Amino acid sequence: MAEAERIIGTPDTPEAAGAEPEQGESAPPRGRRRITVLFVVAVFAYTLDLVSKLLVVAKLEHHAPIEVFGDWLEFHAIRNPGAAFGFGAAFTVIFTMIAAAVIVVIARLARKLYSLPWAIALGLLLGGALGNLTDRIFRSPGIFQGEVVDFIAPKGFAVFNLADSAIVCGGILIVLLSFRGLDPDGTVHKD
């Protein structure tokens, strides 16, 4: 929790009040916030996911799978009430609340965002979370219980969608940035 507070910051912490960075950290760079980049990436990821799901529902649902690369990759429309790999189908409402919480955390973090790589990573997470949240809210069987449209089916792996891909890519990027010591505010710490 302390790490999350350090990154997000709170109004009553020295970092939020403009105090000097701790030893081993560099000062945040001067410059513009990267909020625009975050939202452009999020809108792009969300739009791509939304359009792909609309096409899948209109053209592929209730039809035979389409082979993309033989039996190695198919487009196969399914409805997933659970999380990744179909886990937790009985907890759709909880997954909806988690996605909404992720969106709120990203919006809060955006006010301290000066790092371009973090803006891209958070934009991917935001766009993916919005894509799957849209399904959870507006698709059947009902509000906050909707099933997510998945359609990318690699051989021997779970079926997923473009929102899932954006979330995974954003998550991997965040892990890499954390290992490199780059914080969302642009500071670099050496541990």
Structural notes for this entry:
- The radius of gyration is 19 Å and the shape is globular.
- The chain has helices spanning 2-8, 35-59, 92-109, 116-138, 162-180; strands at 66-69, 73-80, 148-154.
- Helix 2 (35-59) runs parallel beside helix 4 (116-138) and helix 4 (116-138) runs antiparallel to helix 5.
- It contains five helices and three strands.
- It has 191 residues and is mostly helical.
- The protein is 48% helix and 10% strand.
- The two termini are 18 Å apart.
- The chain has a three-stranded antiparallel beta sheet.
- Mean pLDDT is 83; it is low at 1-6 and 8-21.
Put the structure in a nutshell.
This protein has helices spanning 2-8, 35-59, 92-109, 116-138, 162-180, and strands at residues 66-69, 73-80, 148-154.
Number of helices: 5
Low-confidence stretches: 1-6, 8-21
Topology as a string of helices (H) and strands (E): HHEEHHEH
Identify the strand order in the major beta sheet: 1-2-3
Over the alpha carbons, how many angstroms does the gyration radius reach? 19 Å
Strand content: 5-15%
Which class of secondary structure composition applies to the elements? Answer: mainly alpha
Number of strands: 3
Oligomer: single chain
**How far apart are the first and last residues' alpha carbons, in Å?**
18 Å
- The share of residues in helices is 40-55%
- Sketch the major β-sheet: 3 strands, antiparallel
Shape: globular
Mean pLDDT: 83
Annotation keywords:
mainly alpha, 5 helices, about 50% helix, globular
